[in-house]
Amino acid sequence: MAMSPLRIPRDLGAARDNLLDKARRRRMADTRPMERTAIEKNEHFTLYRYLPDDEARPHGRPVFLTPPLAAPAMAFDLRRGCSVAEYFVEEGRDVYLVDYGPVDFGDRDQGIEHWVDEVLPQALTLASEDAHGVNLHMAGWSLGGIFTMFTAAARQDLPIATATAVASPFDLRRVPLLALARPLDWVFGGLVGSAYRAVGGVPAPLTKWGFQLSAADKYLTKPLSILTHSDDRDFLAQLEAVDRFMDNMYAYPGRTFGQLYHVVMRTNEFATGTMELGGRPVHLADIDVPVLVVAGLNDTLAPTPAVAHLLDLVTGSPSTQLLQAPGGHLGVLTGRAAKKTTWPGMEAFFSRFD
Hints:
Layout lengths: L11 H12 L13 E5 L4 E5 L12 E4 L17 H7 L4 E5 L12 H19 L5 E6 L1 H12 L5 E7 L9 H24 L1 E2 L1 H10 L2 H5 L1 H7 L4 H14 L5 E2 H14 L6 E4 L2 E4 L7 E6 L7 H5 L1 H4 L6 E6 L5 H4 L7 H11 L2
Parallel strand pairs: 3-4, 3-5, 5-6, 6-11, 11-12
Antiparallel strand pairs: 1-2, 2-4, 7-8, 9-10
């Protein structure tokens, strides 16, 4: 296959100014958080509300955003002009975001059931009460999408209007990157188990390294990308914002990591549509609200076949849809193309069920 021609900066003056700003460590990305109010703060989470400004026309049900573990909730508010929260606020929707905060040794005994049975139901209920009792569009990214689906399956009484999973792999046997890792589990699986139990989880530097490994090609070619896009200040701002996101990774709690390690390396339990949580089985077939599945066309950590498998599992949903959009694992959620692809697609889906 012929290689794509190398991009050459067209505006040499802009390229010079941008590279000088980078050399002087001047910020290019506007990473100020969107204006928000904390409506609940406790030992397990903080619940934020973003309200549309006076110029936005009130529109539809609120959106409830669910982050994964380890990755900071700023994924939904990466930078001004490239923020999930900003987009839906400008569409006129109230937006709620649950933020678990950092994980430490004291959280080592928290498993997936902690978030599915306690944290998310409580946060959803509080958000609905704050929004005058309406049901919300619940949307999660990565593991947050998996949490979203199992929460909707476990609790049909919760105020959920629709459930959306963005870049959430359910059939892990269809993730090539994980297939390469499984032989190592045969040799080092026992050592891994002993290590994470001893330290109470997976330290933040390792979660950052794992995320970078899933997009190793981008990290290896990053210096070249900076040079070839040196005249594109918005491109450089996005790189800066992503670096900030990566520098704020959290640790994984021990029990949750153990559950995920077992699912990923041994059982592929998510692909069955049933998971044992809190001593009882939770079936994704019990989800009774419309479901949207979003897959990134360039996502190596959650390729489309692994993500789209969810549609085969939610047999009780009255309506399902697959949305494919450009971007990798983070890019499909909040890349520069998301404002023209992922977010309008989600908005169109939400509007059908307002």
